[in-house]
Amino acid sequence: MTSVELSTPSVGKYTQPTGLFINNEFVKGVEGKSFETINPTTEEVICSVHEATEKDVDIAVAAARKAFEGPWKKETPENRGKLLVNLANLMEKNVDRLAAVESLDNGKAFSIAKGDVGMAAGCLRYYGGWADKIEGKVIDTNTDTFSYTKQEPIGVCGQIIPWNFPLLMWAWKIGPAVATGNTIVLKTAEQTPLSALVAAELIKEAGFPPGVVNIISGFGKIAGAAISSHMGIDKVAFTGSTIVGRQIMKAAAMSNLKKVTLELGGKSPNIIFNDADIDNAISWVNFGIFFNHGQCCCAGSRIYVQSGIYDKFVQQFKARATANKVGDPFAADTFQGPQISQLQYDRIMGYIDEGKKAGATVVTGGERHGNKGYFIQPTIFADVTEDMKIVQEEIFGPVCTISKFETEEEVLHSANDTTYGLAAAVHTQNLNTALRVSNALRAGTIWVNQYNMLHHQVPFGGYKESGIGRELGEAALANYTQTKSVSIRLGDALFG
Ligand code: NAI
Ligand code: MG
């Protein structure tokens, strides 16, 4: 069996594929293994899915290679674009089912999951538009030579994605890789295999040839490691923890020097100046850290507030954070659902205990929410020092710190004093302050008077240890193309 009947509160019964999606078919793993996926809201098993091991990665890579060398090579750019647009349309048509599966497996609110599906479709459609606009250059060196460049696909791409935005990360990876003519073996996170398999059905329905996009469920240490060290994979793209990012780079270096792009962690500063519109700023700061239960690589987890508004800000932010509705993802007014797993719950509670022990003040939260599911109260720490673990390390949960600052120079020093550099934000009504601070912050994305507003047209990625390469926008095409230079002799022989 490679499917199972499941039910969600929002769409009722549906058929959930559980196989490995290889060559447009759902198949069992060669070793016959499977693993369970847990509903983080109830801590109960949802179902089992088939597990890919090294041998299945080999099979998926062979399928992707055959497609790449075969019919896919002959596919016109225009048709590659059409396929992505078809897929985007099908995702929109199935938004309720996809979002329900996402909420079931990941725990995010159904209303927010619907937003994720919309953004995933938008991203795929955007890259569908790029497919027939990938162009080279003619380079004039001298009259005896005609030189031009072509942007060619890299080949078979391994893609390893995390559990915090299962469908959105799926789209971010598939869109630019398909637009540029590559084929794919994508491994989902072991915590959230389900929505990608439902979306895999749509890949077939959209008309993709077999083997172009293969989706496998499996564990990082087995299937993920097999991808990053595979001799038949030309490129690996990864989103997840910095520690695993390093392992992937090492595996790529030790195998075939496959190209590597990485989207890793962050500890992003969110800076509020005295002159900010305080009500707007609090709304964005709240969204910046508590959206997706704090499970965002770009979460605004270090909040710096200028001294003139500090006391007022802390008081108002506390009120705002406690008003966030925590609970059942399928309830209409839920903003924050459970953390993804027992392991993540334990890690986050460990950080909260560290903060308390280090002497930071709990402004609000700091405890479990309820007694079933991996829920944690929105938590704000004040009276922190820069050396505390809760200020230095990525917590990846609904936990932030607030620090008081006096001058721009001082806050810039603190904001940039991190090994990460994914995102940062500044809240001010002074245009000069906004631009000066944006220029001085060492991060790949800067938000002014907003937070967490990503758009598929705008590049996203990390400075420093937050990553290599850029996703989204035109920039992501570079992750999936290589430049070929062709030089043609027009003149006579140069050397007698
Ligand atoms: P992780 O980095 O272990 O998992 C992400 C993906 O990598 C999953 O698909 C996993 O199966 C795969 N993976 C794990 N080990 C691998 C290996 N050796 N080779 C190849 N692939 C491997 O992240 P995890 O443990 O789920 O979360 C731990 C922390 O990572 C979080 O607390 C957070 O700080 C960070 N994280 C960051 C994300 C981001 O969006 N940048 C997303 C998820 C986690
Ligand atoms: Mg799950």
UniProtKB/TrEMBL annotation:
Catalytic residues (UniProt): E263
The reaction(s) this protein catalyses: an aldehyde + NAD(+) + H2O = a carboxylate + NADH + 2 H(+)
EC number(s) given by UniProt: 1.2.1.3
Domain Aldehyde dehydrogenase span(s) in chain numbering: 28-486
GO MF term set: aldehyde dehydrogenase (NAD+) activity
Keywords of the record: Oxidoreductase
Coiled-coil zones: none
Pfam families for this protein: Aldedh
Biological process per Gene Ontology, one example term: acetate biosynthetic process
Family membership noted in the UniProt record: Belongs to the aldehyde dehydrogenase family.
Official protein name in the record: Aldehyde dehydrogenase
Organism, scientific name: Venustampulla echinocandica
